[in-house]
TrEMBL record, chains A, B:
Its EC number is 3.5.4.19, 3.6.1.31. The gene is hisI. Residues 39-112 form the Phosphoribosyl-AMP cyclohydrolase domain. It comes from Tsuneonella suprasediminis. This is Histidine biosynthesis bifunctional protein HisIE. GO terms for biological process: L-histidine biosynthetic process. One of its GO terms (molecular function) is phosphoribosyl-ATP diphosphatase activity.
Length: 125, 125
């Protein structure tokens, strides 16, 4: 019990998610099988709680200013298989099974382009 | 040339990084070989430019309020092999070769714990 709060956050077993000044933390979604990064979004406490309670990924839409269940319109929900937490507990990795393309463009992953010599090229994902 | 700015950003070949209200975008570092997520950090324009110019990952430290070259103290620099850009160009994936453990705790990855039943457990990375 002599650990500093910082050490306890890094080394302890207590889940103490750290939200930033806007009340958000970062969530990286990876495919549970391939480990490919599918998307990156943000969670507030409400989205984190909803994700844990339902086992399906929820985020906070910064543009719409509200809770957003991934797939609520498309049906392409993300079933969370495992959640990884980083050292200072302000970022999560969600290992998920995706019910369809994750990107709203129809791409499997939102990261469908690579930066090369200053311009973007499509990649196979 | 009839595309909306939004469509052009999603489908075009022009690199138009989108920084948020704080002047930042998100960068997910993955191991170029294993594809494991190593860390997540933020870049402002200065950090992005430095990363592209040097081929080594630079970030903006929110806590220190300055440019931060990963490994500047530890020597554990991240050599960038490929940069992926997401649909709306506000997030990057950096596929990197790491010169040592990426986490300041000495762990290979910052994501060394998993959340299970409300508490954290160490995972093999």
């Amino acid at each position: 019990m002599n650990a500093t709060p910082e050490l306890d956050r890094e080394q302890g077993s207590a889940f103490q998610p750290k939200f930033d000044a806007a009340g958000l933390l970062s969530a990286v979604v990876v495919d549970a099988e391939s480990k490919a990064v599918l998307m990156l979004a943000f969670m507030d406490r409400e989205a984190l709680d909803a994700t844990i309670a339902t086992g399906e990924a929820h985020f906070h839409s910064r543009s719409r200013g509200r809770l957003w269940k991934k797939g609520e319109t498309s049906g392409h929900v993300l079933t969370v298989k495992r959640i990884l937490v980083d050292c200072d507990q302000d970022a999560l990795v969600l290992e998920c099974a995706a019910a369809g393309p994750t990107c709203h463009t129809g791409a499997v992953s939102c990261f469908y382009r690579t930066l090369r010599d200053g311009s973007l090229q499509n990649v196979k994902t």
